[in-house]
Design goal:
Helices cover 16% and strands 50% of the residues. It is α+β, with helices and mostly antiparallel strands. The chain has one domain (28-144): Lipocalin, CATH 2.40.128.30.
């Protein structure tokens, strides 16, 4: 009977190997990302609005990095408080964001940031968000606060 328990436990470990590794065993090389960031967001121009629109400066706090998993919270005047979570690869961070009290007119979105090991206090990349009948997108630049 013990072999059945061992088999089930081994299957469980194999099924969730990456999550277990990221959460418990991995010493993260990305701990330097934890802390407070100033994020500047701008919307890309489109046919209706031919000039780039500066949307906002926001405060983002990366609260935890476990292996290649990353979590944080952000706040903006227009969007309110939102949660960030995602994964880190060798050169990229992919985050999803959504409001804490998921309000229908404030849908979730995604951010893709480039990691630059030569400048660990700066991140830049792209964002996109579904606003019902259209997807808005733009660029973002994050500067780490000291």
């Amino acid at each position: 009977m013990a072999w059945v328990a061992t088999l089930i436990f081994t299957f469980y470990l194999g099924e969730y190997n990456e999550e277990i590794y990221n959460f418990t065993l991995a010493k993260s090389h990305y701990k330097y990302l934890e802390g407070d960031w100033n994020a500047r967001w701008s919307e890309d121009p489109c046919i209706e609005i031919p000039k780039k629109i500066q949307l906002s400066n926001e405060h983002i706090s990366i609260t935890h990095v476990y292996g290649k998993l990353i979590y944080g919270i952000g706040f903006s005047e227009s969007y309110g408080k939102y949660k960030l979570r995602g994964k880190i690869s060798d050169s990229t961070i992919v985050l999803t964001y959504e409001r804490e009290n998921d309000i229908p007119n404030k849908p979730p979105g995604v951010v893709i940031l480039t990691l630059d090991r030569s400048n660990i206090d700066s991140l830049h990349g792209f964002w996109a968000q579904n606003k019902g009948d259209e997807i808005v997108h733009g660029i973002t630049k994050w500067i780490k606060l000291k």
